[in-house]
Fold:
Amino acid sequence: MTTERPFTAASFRQFLNEKKLMGSHCSNCDKSYLPPRAICSHCFGDQMEWVEIKGAGKLAAFTSIYIAPTTMIEAGYGRDKPYLAGVVELDEGVKISAQILGLDASKPEDVKIGTQLVAEFVERGEGEEKKIALAFRAE
Amino acid sequence: MSNKKLGRGVAVVGAGMSKFGAFPDKSSRDLFVEAFQSMRGSVDKEFDPADIETIYIGNFSSDLFEAQSHTAPIMADVVGLASRPTMRIEDACASSGVAMRQGILAIASGLYDIALVGGTEKMTNLPTAEVTDTLAAAADTLYEIPAGFTFPGFYAAIASAYMHKYGMKPEHLMSVAIKNHENGTLNPNAQFGVTIPAWMEGRKKSAEKKGKPIPTWKDEMEFLHDDRANPMIAWPLRLFDCSPITDGATAVLLVAEDIAKQFTDHPLHIIGSGQASDAALHDRDDLTSIGAARQASQEAYAMAGVMPKDVRIAEVHDCFTIAEVVATEDLGFFEPGEGFKAAEDRVTARDGAKPINTSGGLKSKGHPVGASGVGQTVEIFKQMRGQAGERQVAGDIPLGLTHNVGGTGGTCVVHIYERRD
Structure:
């Protein structure tokens, strides 16, 4: 039962590898959390359950990154190939940080806050090292 | 909000700093010795360092930058103070602002009368990519960094939300950089003590010397729009929107208010102290403001019994130009959405109604992250006592404020200082 997984980052990543975006939901005060939390920051209770986040949302804030960290340089990005990173507000009201796809990172001035996005599960790495990264794509 | 008070009064009676910059042959302990000596020299009356009872050191990551942990006893030892209790405080870029608060609380508790508070960071040993990765460790490495965010990237995202909400343009941010470089030029300890026009002249001369085409920028704005001279780091932030990678150390001497006059006739009384924390950027309701700064400043104002309008000068955490704009709003100096206009209208210039970052700020003075919080107090100490030399703000300065942020606002600490003489 997936619902028995602990409310940890490892579980969150495990769900991502199964191409599911999962948050936690406090059954006491009906609040959802993404990333998942083990303790409700509203009532301090631990009556959490996993909830699937549908993955539809809109762009709340973003940047186009030209000076990349080593992990993104390894993924082929950098000065000549910038990428978009953003904060996405999901329809459920929760927000999360993710790479943004489907928009031109070399023309950030044309990217609009409020753009409709859907979650995409991007494969990174090879073989044993293969992992799924969360991204959002403009519709 | 409850109106909390300190158990007893605390004053700053000495403040000093090393030169900020890139010093390949100096370790953080060498820089701390310089800061300590500079602080000693600033104490007006007789002062025996042996009287120091306790030591708090702000430091973000000597572990990764210098492969050295457990730095607080080392800093105590190099200035001859081994045997005193020491503590290192790590709150990212707010490390020494928080160390300052710990020193204040230690004296206010009644346990100690004299505390040394310092900050150190030695950042230039590592290549830039590794510095970027080390700084990124101050963000949420499980949920923010995998998204590809960098530190400039976070503040750039705040800028995007701010531009969308208030109609600011990237050009407005350039006026913050221009002002802080003007101020830094007048600070002998600054890392980049040159104005942007002087920088432009330097680039032209260098091109001429190398036989390359000489750039033809007609003014600062044209220079700042030049992708080659001022490359994009994380849109809309360019190189000149970002504070540099810096080596440096800072130190202040805190004492119980009732013995302050033994050290100087002009102590700075700490009348307000506030600190707050916050969740990761994506977990906040408002992406155009730093909630922890609003909360910390409200706490500090309430303790001091003063209003934002009463503050004459402030050193705020301008790790990026947008951070200064947002800070001046979070501190209540300007209404939300008005901070960028104040910067453009030079209200925050040295001769404006609300001088901000007269030291040059982190932008021009430099940002040795763990040392920056106490570095802000050094500037306020000089300005409020009329010792800021060429960059001295005219007139009486009865109240000053420092605002030190860790990460993207996970930590913020605010202090308010008063002169009573």
Q: What stands out?
A: Chain A has two helices and eight strands.
